[in-house]
Description:
Layout: H1 10-13, H2 29-43, H3 50-56, H4 61-65, H5 71-92, H6 101-118, H7 120-128, H8 133-137, H9 141-160, H10 171-191, H11 198-215, H12 220-235
Helix pairs in contact: 5-6, 5-9, 6-11, 9-10, 10-11, 11-12
Amino acid sequence: MATKKTTTSPKKKAAPMKKAASKNKAITKDTIVSAYMEYVLMHEKTPKSVYKFAKQHAMTEAEFYAFFGSFEALQRGIWTAFFDHAMQLGHKNPAYVGFSNQEKMLTFFFTFFELLTANRSYVMFALKEHSDMMKNMSQLKDLRAHVKEFAGTLINEKNEEKSFKILKQPVSVFSEGAWLQTLFIMKYWMEDTSSSFEKTDVVIEKSVRAIFDVFETTPLESILDFGKFLWKEKMN
């Protein structure tokens, strides 16, 4: 069974977004994202006007709109940046190309949640900004598409290894399952109070093992193991 030791070392590489660029530096997508996240953390609210936000960060509205059509698009873009960065870090590991699909999924989740942890204050604000949970979740729309596409690629690779069509699994079902798994882990991470979020690491490993065992149609042992862990956590 794959463990965290087979993945990249995200704790050494994952870091909060850098501060906004100075007036002498060109405006880029990253500098806008950094400025936005810093604004949110300093003011504990989202900016109301693109004009004022741009003025405060030495950029023009045109420079902002060159990268994002609205603050809502920027919010979605931040989650896409988390995903892209996690994937880039995973592929930087020379051993990644030889990983099993389960190890690739573990690498993604471990790295992705290290990035969320490095930016926890922003993430917690973003996911709790509105009392209406659906409004908070709307910013995850693009992230959902990326996670499902990544999971779908892994599923297609596994299906190609199977000789009989009847043994092949529906990509849409399992890619959606991977997204629901992401949401489940995210909720657990938000409520995790263990040091260095060690319990979230356990949830990641057990849940990834469970979903891959389901894919291989030998789910009983891992699902029971995962269920016992969650029950123990709830009782404690």
